[in-house]
């Protein structure tokens, strides 16, 4: 008798249960269990009579061929993949709907096809006419990309097995694919996993590179196929605020390259434009001379990126003040606020605090601590920071400013963009400096910086500072911590 293979599978993480429950115990999400037929996705005890084949065991030191890469023709995309698409590899590109995944891949595939490679674009979401319309709008209609609107993995694999092996296949998107081997509905974890498996097998067998497009849920997870993340060679995430034109492509996982590189694009009426100097873009709409903004000299991968941090510190009537942050780690903000309170005598418990990284960039470096602290204090005392200064340094729990890597690269980028001062950790002073031509203000402790900014606030005269009672440096009691 056939075994009952119905089970409840979490659509977020793929964990399976044999009865329904409200919460998935594996990932903690609520209401994510859906009934699926898992027959076929896990082979049920196949007892093979076949005698095992023997294979040769290799040594670690053996010579392997360098991973042959296919350049996408877009330098920013190549930077994130680590130099191009690797033969036989599978890459997942995730991002919110409408962020520009199809646009990016249409542009890249067209450039590669024009360079003479066999490139196939399978759209499971849009009709051929829609994809053509986009290509027309991008001025790429003449590119010899092979196009189809298909969703059956078996049909796709048989079609692509004929003729020359494509160098690259785009599957837009993996959620729309389905395979006969499992019975659940398209879009379910079981289907997505089985479809991805079949496509990955095809890539490994033929040496074609495959790009899977995946949608992302509101909290940034690649919906459903989180399981797919483990199966593919690289996961790229395409990010950006819908209202802003900047788009950032980031490697989340990469078996063939670095994971800290970003590619920066700008969405224009004619598709995505590569931004080779992101600092200029992130600083282009800077409000000069307003309080609460500080320029952070950061490093993204191998490239220095200057970006503005904006803070707003406003008195609150709420019992629990608001702490809102965009583009930075909220727990990092809490830490900086705690250090300001405990060691620098800056009282923030009666204030709402908002922190924003301009341009839709997401900063992960702890080196941004110092710039964030400077912006916060500047907003609190209503004293604009010098417009020609950049800030970087990690703040330790004791309030000391700790050194960060790549001081030289940060200073050079700042000098290139016309900055003339840098506020940085004390220990970095001797390291570099003169050669970049910046005047360096090395601070050993956060208290020193706070005092300097507060002094700027009081120098502005009573009118500016007395605009709000909280804005006077009188708020700084001597540190008790
Ligand atoms: P799309 O690539 O379809 O997004 P995704 O595949 O990630 O869902 O891009 C959709 C958005 O991009 C859409 O809102 C319109 C905008 N867009 C432009 O601004 N300029 C262009 O040249 C193109 C093709 C799209
Ligand atoms: Mg799309």
Strand order in the sheet with the most strands: 8-7-9-10-6-11-12-13-14
How many distinct helices? 12
SS strand fraction: 15-25%
CATH architecture of the largest domain: 3-Layer(aba) Sandwich
Overall SS class: alpha/beta
Biggest β-sheet strands, sense, barrel: 9 strands, mixed
Number of domains: 3
Please state the overall shape, judged from the principal axes of the Cα atoms.
Answer: globular
Query: What integer is the average pLDDT?
Result: 84
Tell me the name of the CATH homologous superfamily of the largest domain: P-loop containing nucleotide triphosphate hydrolases
Computed CA radius of gyration, to the nearest angstrom? 27 Å
Distinct small molecules: thymidine-5'-diphosphate, magnesium ion
N-end to C-end Cα span: 73 Å
Query: Can you tell me the residue ranges where pLDDT is under 50 for at least 5 consecutive residues?
Result: 42-46, 461-481
Provide the CATH topology of the largest domain. Rossmann fold
Helix content: 25-40%
- In the CATH hierarchy, what is the class of the largest domain? Alpha Beta
Number of extended strands: 23
């Amino acid at each position: 008798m056939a075994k009952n293979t119905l089970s409840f599978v979490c659509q977020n993480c793929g964990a399976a249960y044999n009865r329904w429950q409200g919460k998935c115990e594996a990932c903690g999400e609520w209401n994510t269990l859906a009934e699926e037929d898992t027959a076929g996705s896990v082979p049920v005890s196949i007892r093979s009579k076949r005698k095992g084949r023997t294979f040769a065991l290799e040594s670690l030191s053996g010579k392997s061929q360098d991973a042959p890469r296919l350049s996408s023709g877009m330098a920013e995309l190549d930077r994130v993949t680590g130099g191009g698409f690797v033969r036989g590899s599978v890459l997942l590109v995730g991002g919110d709907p409408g962020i520009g995944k199809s646009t990016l891949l249409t542009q890249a595939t067209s450039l590669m096809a024009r360079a003479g490679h066999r490139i196939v674009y399978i759209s499971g979401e849009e009709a051929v006419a829609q994809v053509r319309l986009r290509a027309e709008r991008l001025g790429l209609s003449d590119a010899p990309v092979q196009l189809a609107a298909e969703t059956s993995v078996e049909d796709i694999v048989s079609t692509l097995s004929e003729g020359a092996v494509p160098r690259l296949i785009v599957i837009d998107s993996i959620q729309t694919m389905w395979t006969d081997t499992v019975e659940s509905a398209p879009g379910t974890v079981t289907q997505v996993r089985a479809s991805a498996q079949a496509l990955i097998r095809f890539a490994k067998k033929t040496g074609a590179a495959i790009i899977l497009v995946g949608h992302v849920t509101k909290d940034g997870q690649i919906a459903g196929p989180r399981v797919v993340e483990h199966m593919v060679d690289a996961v790229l995430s395409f990010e950006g605020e819908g209202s802003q034109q900047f788009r950032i492509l980031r490697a989340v996982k990469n078996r063939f390259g670095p994971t800290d590189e970003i590619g920066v694009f700008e969405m224009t009426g004619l598709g995505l434009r590569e931004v080779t100097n992101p600092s200029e873009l992130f600083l282009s709409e800077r409000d000069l001379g307003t309080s609460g903004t500080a320029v952070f000299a950061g490093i993204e991968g191998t490239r220095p990126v200057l970006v503005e941090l904006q803070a707003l510190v406003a008195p609150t009537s709420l019992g629990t003040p608001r702490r809102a942050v965009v583009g930075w780690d909220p727990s990092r903000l809490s830490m900086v606020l705690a250090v300001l309170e405990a060691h620098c005598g800056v009282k923030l418990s009666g204030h709402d605090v908002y922190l924003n990284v301009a341009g839709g960039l997401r900063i992960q470096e702890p080196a941004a601590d110092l710039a964030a602290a400077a912006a916060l204090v500047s907003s609190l005392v209503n004293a604009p920071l010098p417009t020609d200064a950049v800030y970087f340094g990690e703040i330790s729990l004791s309030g000391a400013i700790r050194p960060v890597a790549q001081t030289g690269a940060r200073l050079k980028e700042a000098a290139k963009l016309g900055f003339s001062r840098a506020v940085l950790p004390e220990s970095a002073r001797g390291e570099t400096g003169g050669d970049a031509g910046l005047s360096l203000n090395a601070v050993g402790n956060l208290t020193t910086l706070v005092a300097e900014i507060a002094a700027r606030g009081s120098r502005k005269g009573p009118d500016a500072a007395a605009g709000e009672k909280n804005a006077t440096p009188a708020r700084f009691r001597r540190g008790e911590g």
